[in-house]
Amino acid sequence: MLTLRDLSVSLRGRPVLRNLSLDLAPGETLGLVGESGSGKSMTALALMGLLPPGFVASGSIRLDGTELLGLADADLCRLRGRAMAMIFQEPMTALNPVLPVGAQIAEGLVLHGLMQPRAAREEAVRLMARVGLPDPARRARSYPHELSGGQRQRAMIAMAIACRPSLLIADEPTSALDVSLQVEILALLREIREETGMAMIFISHDLSVISAMADRALVLYGGLAMETGPTRHVIGRPAHPYTQGLIAAIPRGTAHTERLRPIPGQVPDLVRLPPGCPFAGRCALGDAHCAEAPPPLRTGLTALRCHHAEPAPA
Ligand SMILES: Nc1ncnc2c1ncn2[C@@H]1O[C@H](COP(=O)(O)OP(=O)(O)O)[C@@H](O)[C@H]1O
Ligand SMILES: [Mg+2]
Questions:
Q1: Quick one: pLDDT band at residue 254, thresholds 50, 70, 90?
Q2: CA dihedral in degrees (216, 221, 222, 226; nearest 10)?
Q3: Quick one: pLDDT at residue 257?
Q4: Ligand 1, pocket-test mutation among 17, 38, 42, 219, most atoms within 8 A of CB
């Protein structure tokens, strides 16, 4: 249902995202993982046609047979919220502060011509109940600032699923929540996915969240897909030094018994990437050639881009 071919994004001629290709089947979930600043949100915004000014996308994004790149704004608006919807990391930036949440959830249904305003308001209350908001009829009249962080996240999920999109992009939907709320919201998203059969792109910097949510995982770093494959192989048998570094940095057991090994060094600025492998400067296998030449794609049990590492044979 979603096919990316060599999706690249640049800012004033400088590459930010490079040659991202992937296929997503109906009902499938792809987990997009990588440290903060790796380009995960940029990828989501490129898919939604919401890149900040100055950023230019090239390549191909096909959703249900429609090429999205180069589509007129009006056509893109018809798809946004309807064929594809997005849950943002910080709900306060996505919710309108001066409109009651019920009205915001109903808005898309009316805008896309799916319901009359009155029916849409009733549907909004049903959706609010579905995402676990207590006393939804009353809460529909609340403004975003009157809800807790977890309730706002639920309201945004209701808004995103209102028009039954075939693709839902969830950008770190639980990263701002405490652990028990995070577990509840992830369970809710899994239930809704089963009910609707929608495909998901689930973004997180947290590999344990990705393994709980995603069929396939794509490890992004410096705007480049470093390693991708079935989640169990990417996490269970990672071959790319960056994926291995991410996994070594996961806290295990009780925090005091095993020391974390964070990857030394810093994520490169996406607008100042080296011409070769963005991980070269932090990688144990990195050499001068790595920083100069883009890493080749190697396929096996996973697919990875590295001058040195090979995936396990398929
Ligand atoms: N409006 C912008 N102008 C310039 N650079 C930007 C802008 N937005 C994002 N970036 C670049 O993108 C990087 C963050 O990418 P992002 O996709 O938000 O990462 P992630 O979601 O993986 O944490 C920043 O480090 C910065 O280099
Ligand atoms: Mg982000």
A1: low
A2: -70
A3: 53
A4: 42
Residues, CB within 5 angstroms of ligand 2 (ion): 40-41
pLDDT exceeding 90 applies to what percent of the chain? 84
36 lines ligand 1 (CB under 6 A): yes
| Ligand 1 contact via 46 beta carbon (within 6 Å) | no
Beta bridge partners of 87: 170
* pLDDT for 71 beyond 80: yes
Identify the structural domains of the chain with CATH numbers, from first to last.
2-83+165-305 (3.40.50.300), 93-164 (no CATH)
The per-residue pLDDT for 252 is 66
Q: How far is the C-alpha of 162 from the C-alpha of 268, rounded, in Å?
A: 38
Kindly give the interhelix angle for 101-111 and 149-161, rounded to the nearest 10 degrees. Answer: 10
Ligand 1 near 99 CB (within 6 A): no
Give the Cα separation of 10 and 270 in Å (integer): 10
- The tens digit of pLDDT for each residue in 78-101 reads 999 999 999 988 777 789 999 999
| Maximum distance among all Cα pairs of the chain, rounded to whole angstroms | 64
For ligand 1, atom 26: residue with the closest CA: 270
The two structure tokens encoding residue 207? 């590999």
CA of 137 to the centre of ligand 1 (A): 39
Give the H or E element holding residue 44: helix 40-48
Residues 229-242 pLDDT 10s = 999 999 999 999 99
Report how far residue 192's alpha carbon sits from residue 124's, in angstroms, rounded to the nearest whole number.
15
- Answer whether 40 contacts ligand 1 (Cβ < 6 A): yes
pLDDT at 63 over 70: yes
Place of tokens 């440290």: 35
